[in-house]
């Protein structure tokens, strides 16, 4: 449990999620076009050291998701919740889909759905999470 | 290159032993392995020991010297950690050590103690095999990660929860006669389908249990086996390992496990065999979908066809290539750091003819073991063959 008391500092990641919360979500992109998320010194695909920040697209596309019923302790009060993997241009983000009924058959999320990315809070302990919200395509 | 023989195998009963220490579990497995091998433990030149979450579960780091003591050996001892593939990499390094001529006798295996934790604690522990910043903080649990892969697979290739339920039913049926299995009870397709959801589309009976247990193997050079008159008919002829991006979201394809395919290619090339030569397999079915992805990576099913293999009877005990005759992680159990060694132990028994399920593979000569870490960011594949 890393979010109890003073939050653990993770330089690079913390600035990235601050930027996402401010509407400035971005990815790192190498000259070959491989996307990655910070902190990075080199491209994890090809080792290139020349990484440039690139703004994320406004919206992304859900590629897969799961409804989690058995959570880890820091998500105890969040379950059931939907974790999704969403394509945003050169990268995919993993986050929690908000603004839907995780247990419902209707109005849930589906593969191919369009979402936007923001930063939300875990209900359990207030820790920050990448949050997706469905938008009209 | 020195030929490597499996001289002896040892297992604890897999299951719930919350009061038993890790050192006692590994000591039992090692004792059994030495007895099976007929090898004097003073001949052991290295211990390669797999363990994943002992620092969390037992508040015990630095486990290798502790396990050397437990096994009654005094030699270089190293703990290997690659999540659920910890024992697989420990075995691989043992094979490479004997092959290189560095040692004639290596003890390898692993142990995990898990049921002393509650479900939340075990869930938290297992989740640390994922990327903490970008996955665990986004609510990815271990079942959740495989659920993401399962849905991606269904989207790419089709398939259903019922197909997965056939994997569960098959592996439970295989575990029935296995004296080391955690669950020796049948599960029907209907029961699997009706079990409660864990991380949809995966339900409780798609998942392996939380398990305590240990595995131990005595690997020797063929020369040592001959000089000491050992009955060691099974040889490790191929070893391979693969690595992928840590986080699932960073993989090119969410419905495939290329690290396992790379490990399989390397192991087959090493052994000089092809996937068509494989008579039986033990694969890392931590979840039912994992068996599907595993047999596709091993070349035992084409991409998109692994999903129907159990339902169609191709991988059942009387199928073309029986998969997980031990019961697999699903029914035999999954003491994380021991599993890769357990697979080698089960295949050795199956090939020697002294496994309760050997009757299903009486003429088998080539077997393959597939051990995976995390969401297959790590994978180890071994080929075993009957040498005499």
TrEMBL record, chain A:
Residues 55-118 form the ChsH2 C-terminal OB-fold domain. InterPro entries: ChsH2_C, NA-bd_OB-fold, Thioester_dehydratase-like. This is Nucleic acid-binding protein. It holds the Pfam family OB_ChsH2_C. The lineage of its organism: Archaea, Methanobacteriati, Methanobacteriota, Stenosarchaea group, Halobacteria. SUPFAM superfamilies: Nucleic acid-binding proteins (SSF50249). It comes from Halorubrum halodurans.
From TrEMBL, chain B:
It comes from the Archaea. Residues 240-385 form the Thiolase C-terminal domain. One of its GO terms (molecular function) is acyltransferase activity, transferring groups other than amino-acyl groups. Keywords: Isoprene biosynthesis. Pfam families: Thiolase_C_1, Thiolase_N. The keyword rRNA processing does not apply. It comes from Halorubrum halodurans. GO terms for biological process: isoprenoid biosynthetic process. This is 3-ketoacyl-CoA thiolase. Residues 12-222 form the Thiolase N-terminal domain. InterPro entries: Thiolase, Thiolase-like, Thiolase_C_2, Thiolase_N.
